[in-house]
Amino acid sequence: MSSQDRQELDARAREGETVVPGGTGGKSLEAQEHLAEGRSRGGQTRREQLGTEGYQEMGSKGGQTRKEQIGTEGYQEMGKKGGLSTMEQSGGERAEQEGIDIDESKYRTRSQPN
Known about the structure:
There is one protein chain. This protein is mainly alpha-helical. It has helices at residues 3-14, 29-84, 91-98. 5% of the residues are buried.
């Protein structure tokens, strides 16, 4: 990547745009690169600790817990949005662009009975 390309990406990052996948929250190109690297490394470390099978099971349990929190209908609505996401656009951006209705109120955490 040329110096000019990096300067352009850095300027966009300083305006609040995410220019590096996984770099969400970084206020500069360099910060976004470091965030993305750290997040990736964290997942790799945990997978090494648990092994591939254990890591997959952990993800499955997390999904099941979220489904219990928001209900089947909310979980399906959330999946619909996630399925629309691409490398260039979030699911919400793409749904808005294509006029697909996503009811986010369906995936708010339900109050649990006492």
